[in-house]
Amino acid sequence: MIKELKFKVVESFYAWKRATFNPIAKALNQAFTLVELLVVIAILAILAALLIPIGKSMIEKGNSTKCINNLRQIGGAIGIYMTENDGYLPYASGPDFSGSGTTIGFNHYWAPLPSLLNVGSNLPSSFTNRSNYDNPIAKHPFNCPSCKSGFRTYAANMHAMGYMPGGSAYPRRKLTYFSNASKLVLIADDSAGDPSPNNSGTDQFSSSDYLTKIGVRHNGKANILFADFHIESLNKTNLSNTENIKQ
Question: What is the pTM of this model?
């Protein structure tokens, strides 16, 4: 009887020792029930659903800020160009930085503005060739960081900046020609990377097609450089044909 009792005590002791000091057994004793596990998974899913849009919004806000900085640099280059060219605005499409050709877009690798910002084909340049410049991942002022599928992602107002292939219909202008520079659009986000059907992008726009050529990739708005060199984020439907595009 005593031996039997001692055996049970010893067996109980070793059972306690195994449960206490065996990590696997301890983990099993402390494991979640199925209901508790499902509750945790549900909470994590809710948190993810709340945080992911916030994270995307913060990233886009940062990209929009970089885009505005791009336009600020482009505006500075336009100011330098005007100083060097008797007050005339650069062409939306016209000669290259050396004065040759007629169809070079304002944001082209060979155009005056990229050259003034040291990212074009002149030397020194951050880009040794056009293929490196014409690349969606290239970091230069003519690529909006919010557009992942296109390059040279800004468009110029042909009525304001002139369009040499259009001849006398789109002459190059001085700012003094326009009645209200603070309302006149010079450069805007283009539609490259926008939702279909306007996803092809362009180098310039006119009064007849600006609603399809200006893009709204920044949470439904376009970043726009005006002729007095201030920048706004606007819904393009708020733009007036006679006040903002053609004066």
Answer: 0.76
